[in-house]
Design goal:
The complex is a heterodimer of chains A (about 120) and B (about 110).
Chain A (H helix, E strand, L loop, with lengths): L2 E3 L4 E5 L4 E3 L2 E3 L4 E8 L5 E7 L5 E3 L4 E6 L4 E6 L8 E9 L7 E3 L3 E6 L1
Chain B lengths: L4 E3 L2 E4 L5 E6 L6 E7 L5 E8 L2 E5 L7 E4 L6 E5 L8 E8 L6 E2 L3 E5 L1
Parallel strand pairs in B: 2-11
Antiparallel strand pairs in B: 1-3, 3-8, 4-5, 4-9, 5-6, 7-8, 9-10, 9-11
Classes of the chains: A mainly beta (about 120), B mainly beta (about 110).
């Protein structure tokens, strides 16, 4: 069975500070990993994705994530957050084989950026 | 980026009634999905749909649920009859291939 764990339900940081949102996954095969962001009253928007290759992937708005097979992790980072980054962030897993493109979601981390 | 629309944004109905949730996917996308998120819980997969057929469904996709996409129209999720535990936010998504899924803003369903 596959699963995604986001251990931090809420994270609060000051504007301009660095950010790391944690994600751990469990899968029986090769994982495809995504980070999505959800702003209020909007759909989920893709930030970045990892399929293979360089374990550090760049996304939109200065976000990046690092895949670690040994740690089963896919943490999201940003060097300097802006108040507009306040949103809910979801780590998402898709299996390469098996299920027909079914996604497994983490519970989400609500990020609050304070001025 | 590509936009997925969902209509209505909110729906309140009495238990036992039928409800249809509508999704307007990205125009050239071929794969369609529904997800369910109960308040305070994780988003969970319900069903995916391709070439006019349900390809896979989860245990949450009860017999009272059905999906369809008549040509050129919305991708719909119908619940008949509704139950109290169907209260949730339902997200539609679409993808061109089995790659990135694009999500709508969700329909908030409240069953009384």
């Amino acid at each position: 069975a596959q699963s995604v764990t986001q251990p931090d339900a809420r994270v609060t940081v000051s504007e301009g500070a660095s950010l790391q949102l944690r994600c751990k996954y469990s899968s029986s095969g090769t994982p495809y990993l995504f980070w999505y962001v959800q702003y209020p009253r909007q759909g989920l928007q893709l930030l970045l994705k990892y399929y293979s290759g360089d374990p550090v992937v760049q996304g939109v708005n200065g976000f990046e994530a690092e895949f670690s097979k040994s740690n089963s992790s896919f943490h999201l980072r940003k060097a300097s957050v802006h108040w507009s980054d306040s949103a809910v962030y979801f780590c998402v897993l898709r299996m390469v084989s098996g299920s027909f493109n079914k996604l497994t979601f983490g519970a989400g981390t609500r990020l609050a950026v304070c001025p | 980026g590509p936009k997925v629309l969902q209509i209505p944004s909110h729906q309140i109905i009495d238990m036992g009634q039928m409800v249809t949730l509508n999704c307007d996917p990205v125009s050239n996308h071929l794969y369609f999905y529904w997800y369910k998120q109960i308040l305070g819980q994780q988003m969970e997969f319900l069903v995916n749909f391709y070439n006019g057929k349900v390809m896979e469904k989860s245990k949450l996709f009860k017999d009272q649920f059905s999906v369809e996409r008549p040509d050129g129209s919305y991708f719909t999720l119908k619940i008949q009859p509704t139950a109290l535990e169907d209260s949730a936010v339902y997200f539609c998504a679409s993808s061109l291939d089995q790659d990135t899924q694009y999500f709508g803003p969700g329909t908030r369903l409240l069953v009384l």
